[in-house]
C-alpha cells in the first residue's frame, strides 16, 4: 500500500479501505497443531512378568494331607523292610490284614500327645511306658483302645516314647497313637486326671494334642506298622 501524498493529515478513508481489502484477500497461513505420531507398537512381552508353572514335585503345591499320608506310608514301608530282615523271612502282614483302628468312634486319626510332668528329675521314659501300658476308660467306664505307635520313627523306630527337653531340667514326653477322633478328648482327659502310680509319679501336669502333626488315616495302607 502506498501512503497518500495528497495530504499530511495521515491516511485517508480511501487508504483504509484499500488496506482492509488487501488484508482480506491476502493468503493466510493456518497454524495447525503438530500431529502426534502414533506410538510405536507396544512390546508387551517386555513388561509382562512370567508366572512360573506349578512345580508338581514341590511339597508346597500339594495338599498337606497328601504330604502327611505319603510320609506315613514311607515310614510304614521302611519298618516292614526292617521287620522282614530281622525275622529272616519274607512273610509279613499285608495292608489289608491290618485293622484300621481298635476304635470305631469317629474318623481314625494318627494322633500325637505331649505330656508334661509336675517336676524335674523324673524318669520320663518310665512314665511314658507306664502311660502306654495302662487301660484308659471313657467317663461312662467303657474302654478306650488307642494303638500306640513309635513317637519318633526317624530317631528310634522301636520306642513308643520320645523325651523332649523343655528347659531348667524339665522334659516332656511325646506319645503317638491311632485312635478314633471322638475318643481323643476322653483319652487326654483320662491321662490328665490320672492321680499317679502311688509311688514314683503323682500324675501329670498337662496333656496337649499336637494338632499340627495329627492327621486322618485314610485307609489301612497308610498305617505305620506297630512294633
UniProtKB/TrEMBL annotation:
Q: Ranges of Polar residues compositional bias?
A: 1-11, 91-103
What positions does the domain Translation elongation factor EF1B beta/delta subunit guanine nucleotide exchange occupy? 161-209
Entry similarity comment? Belongs to the EF-1-beta/EF-1-delta family.
For this entry, the protein name equals: Translation elongation factor EF1B beta/delta subunit guanine nucleotide exchange domain-containing protein
Q: Which InterPro entries match?
A: eEF-1beta-like_sf, EF1B_bsu/dsu_GNE, Transl_elong_EF1B/ribsomal_bS6
GO molecular function terms attached to this record: translation elongation factor activity
Which UniProt keyword terms apply here? Elongation factor, Protein biosynthesis
Region of interest (Disordered), residue spans: 1-61, 75-103
Q: Tell me which Pfam families the record gives.
A: EF1_GNE
Comp. bias regions, Basic and acidic residues: 44-59, 75-86
Q: Which Gene3D superfamilies match?
A: 3.30.70.60
